[in-house]
Amino acid sequence: MNTNSNSSTPTDKDADEDTGSGTSTDQDSTSTSTSTSTSTDTDSDKGSGTSTDSDGMDAEADKNIMDTSIPNVPCLRTTQQNDGETTTTITKEVENRQTFKNSKGGKFVEVKQVRRMLITRRDGKFVTASIPKPTINKKQRLVKKTKTARRMKQTDDKLSYILGGDYASTMDFAALNAKVVNEPKKKSEFEIRSKDITNSLKNELVRKKFGKSTPTTRLYDYQIEAVLRADSFFKEFETAREPPQMALIVAPPGSGKSGMVALLPYVLNSHKVLILTPSKIISEQLATEFGHGSPQKPFFYKVGMIQNLSLCNKVLERVHLAQSTREVIEIMTNGNLVIVNAQKFGGNSACSLTSQRANVEDRQITLDRLDQFDTIIVDEAHHYPAATWETIVQAFKGKKVVFLTATPYLGTDEKALTLFGALKLVYEIPRNALEGVTIRPMEFIENHFNSVNLKDPAFLDQLHKDVKDILKKHRRQEPREKHPQAMILVATKVEAKAVAAGLGPTATFIIADNQMERNLSAFTKKEKTIAVVCGMLREGYDNSSVTLVVFLRKCKSSVLFEQFCGRRIRMHRLLTGKNPDKTVATVMSYTYFGQRKMWEARERRAEMDPEDEDDE
Q: Is rRNA processing among the key words of this record (predicted)?
């Protein structure tokens, strides 16, 4: 085989020389079955005037392939013949230039990698064109490592410059989390103010009960006694180093339970407090006692514990109020005071601890977050169903738990057994001690109607006359209350609409429909004198202008009877002058509904002394 001595390592210089010589080297293949020919060409072979293709391939076609694929680059052609089939492979070296930016100086550095392109033809037909991956020799790898080390050094220098010098390179987020876990928790406002507020309450109680000096607040003595009794109850368990039992405070409607709820976290030296309520309305009312919302004034300011409204932000914890089921789990880690509807933890809600819909993971998340609270206050406890009771009792074992209820439980029903089996009565406020202080005295009137049809015009006319006469009597008793109002309880929404329509334009109905807010607003603003309800406003609606309640249904629940009576007898504390409200509130019904027995049972409970119950 005769070949050019420089053909195995083609360069740009070799290509120029071949072009100028106009000659090529071929192999004579007349006497052998297989022959190989190697030559060096350029894409400018047209200047030589001589074809170098010894296998008979068209030189112009080869030139076109080279021009369209890898023009102006030296090539090495190899021709093989095997059993009459000719294969020509053209290899060209391609410079692949990659550009990198130096992180320090901002200059551009070119890195050159040689890649070989293989073009194969058989019998004059194009077969393949491929570019094998470039190989990096040891020298190139060493250069690459050196450049990488240089870039890392430049990066460290740049970080040091950006961060202003040395930085703690050993600190990472795992170490940060471990550090946070081991740090002492930040005190809540309840803990910070606990000692001062508790001592102030004790001194105020001495002033009120023994008259040694003038009281400085508008707190009632029984409010102070109730929260101090709860504190003493839990301290007994702390001294004995035993898990505490749950406490129960019985406070009739109008006694100021909301104020007790506001005081308890401070007196109990709480860190994180969860308040459970039976409804959205009561949740919002309790939130205002802690300063949530505007222009509502917090309880501490209203009773004179804090004289300057601007100081409330320094004493009160921020309220987190859960408005929907989805917010319950999310909101429980956001602050030290969370108010939630207790029904979110029972029933069929997704985050319920008792719901079959709640999966194991969601239930465990809820339990873990509930465990963060050290104090739980359950308001209006008598409203919760037995399933919710059991859930609360089981979920909060070992915590400081205080239940407040308006109605003491008598009997042996499931709820009573669940309640008194887990709770200890620490304080009860007798209703007769509140009459003339925070609630109005009451009378019961039963008019004779042995058969009642709520759609009968004759009955509705008599009802309207009875209501009008009693309200007129209340105006004479207390002239400062110029617009006393009445509330009527029926069994269904249909009855509520029918009775309101029969009583004329001075009456409205308040039920769960799209008119509820509008009708409620009209009644609150005294645009209407009479409101007919079917249960929606038994709880959470305070209107001291309501002096008359009427039962137009057969009520057999002592809880329902007590709540509907009690919510309408709150004394009007905002009347002008220093004299208390003189109105004697009225509870009215008709013989057909049989409510006298319920009234007499209520009176017997009011005459019972809580201390006598403890002696039994």
A: no
